[in-house]
Design goal:
64 residues, mainly alpha, 2 helices, 0% strand, elongated
């Protein structure tokens, strides 16, 4: 049973530490999340463009 209490206490300490860090660095974290989302969207757009070009090439091959 002692192992469970130790794990629970460790989890509580980690959770409290992460909460404290988030509260003190919320602006930095929000900026980082925004950058990640923008990069993710740019990558999706790039792959979408590649997919469209490949579909156009496939359509052209069907005509030949």
């Amino acid at each position: 049973m002692n192992n469970y209490w130790g794990a629970m206490l460790t989890g509580a300490l980690i959770g409290a530490g992460l909460t404290y860090y988030f509260i003190n660095n919320e602006e930095k974290i929000s900026c980082a999340v925004s950058r990640i989302k923008a990069t993710h969207q740019a990558a999706r757009d790039c792959f979408g463009d590649i997919e469209e070009e490949l579909e156009e090439l496939d359509d052209l091959e069907d005509l030949v």
